[in-house]
Write a structure and sequence with these properties.
Shape: globular
Order of helices and strands: HHHHHHHHHH
Protein name: DUF937 domain-containing protein
Distance between the termini: 13 Å
Radius of gyration: 14 Å
Strand content: under 5%
Structural class: mainly alpha
Largest sheet: none
Pfam family, one: DUF937
Length: about 180
Amino acid sequence: MNLADLLPEGSLDALTQQLGISREDTERGAQALLPSLIGSIDGKTAAPVEPAGLAAQVQALGGSRLIDNVVGSSPTDTGLGNQLLASLFGSKDVSREVAGKASQATGLDPAILKKMLPILAMLVAGHLAKRSGGQQGGLESILGSIAGALAGSDGSSGSATSAGGLGGILGSILGGR
């Protein structure tokens, strides 16, 4: 998966600084967490969310300004990311499970990955909102395309989706950078 397709410029540096870990660890953590975040859009989580509802929530939380919340000079309001995670995963237990599985895959501390998860949710949501160009229904269309592509790819949830397959799906939907 190409992180550049999902994350805005400067976001990995902001994550590295906020979490106090190396850039390499930030990249490994993001690579491990992103498939679950994106995969949750396909509606197979404990609390399925429709693309229209998720798009409305992203816009209500700030849309593309979610990026500025993370990469800006003010402290990140992770409460916004936690609201997104609640919609995507349905419960904190699922977030903990996602962080735990990512920890097993990367060897990173699960506490760090739990801190990274809401920030990544904000970055991805903000980036997708920005990519939609602010057009009426643009973000909903992107989220619907992702959900449709994931549902048609292998029928599995995001945690089981391969990183390469996910990157190819997103690259085709987003049209590269």
